[in-house]
From TrEMBL:
Protein name: Class I SAM-dependent methyltransferase
GO BP annotations, alphabetical order: methylation
Keywords of this entry: Methyltransferase, Transferase
Keyword Transcription: no
UniProt keyword Nucleotidyltransferase present: no
Length: 156
């Protein structure tokens, strides 16, 4: 299973080992490369990931800690969603993690934006809905969506 993790940091150093997948990572800060897997980390922007990865490359994309921490405008969020849709395989899983506070989510974070993803509750113990609040002091939330066919291609 191919996984792309977007947004590396010191607290993610163990994720490549923990997630038993063919783990790739992306972060625009070159200093974060040390936390990605050797030979499978790319330095670049989440809003341009299809420049680094072919279409339909990944089964799972995890974009955590981007919204409100660099992706601060609605237009950036929309580009992120489009890029995730491009690099995910049909039926692939998108996991968005963010802090649901006005200063870090100044716009609606909607997994179903433009019908690119269908909200879904993944088969993860303790997760029963497409939106899963962590109930921590950061107001961290994960939302889950399954890639839908491209609306433009489906209409053609």
């Amino acid at each position: 299973m191919q996984c792309l993790f977007v947004g590396m940091h010191e607290y993610t150093w163990h994720y490549p080992r923990l997630l038993k997948m063919d783990f790739h990572s992306l972060d625009m800060d070159p200093e974060q490369a040390v936390y990605g897997p050797a030979g499978r980390h790319t330095i670049g922007s989440a809003t341009n990931m299809s420049a680094f990865y072919p279409e339909a490359s990944f089964d799972v994309v995890v974009a955590n800690g981007l919204i409100g921490w660099g992706l601060n405008e609605r237009a950036d969020f929309e580009r992120l969603m489009e890029q995730c849709h491009r690099v995910l395989k049909p039926g692939g899983l998108l996991i968005l993690g963010y802090n649901d506070t006005p200063e870090h989510a100044p716009f609606e974070v909607d997994i179903a934006w433009r019908d690119l993803f269908a909200p879904m509750a993944p088969a993860i113990p303790g997760v029963t809905q497409a939106r899963h609040a962590m109930n921590d002091s950061y107001a961290h939330v994960f939302i889950f969506g399954e890639k839908r066919p491209d609306p433009a291609r489906a209409a053609a």
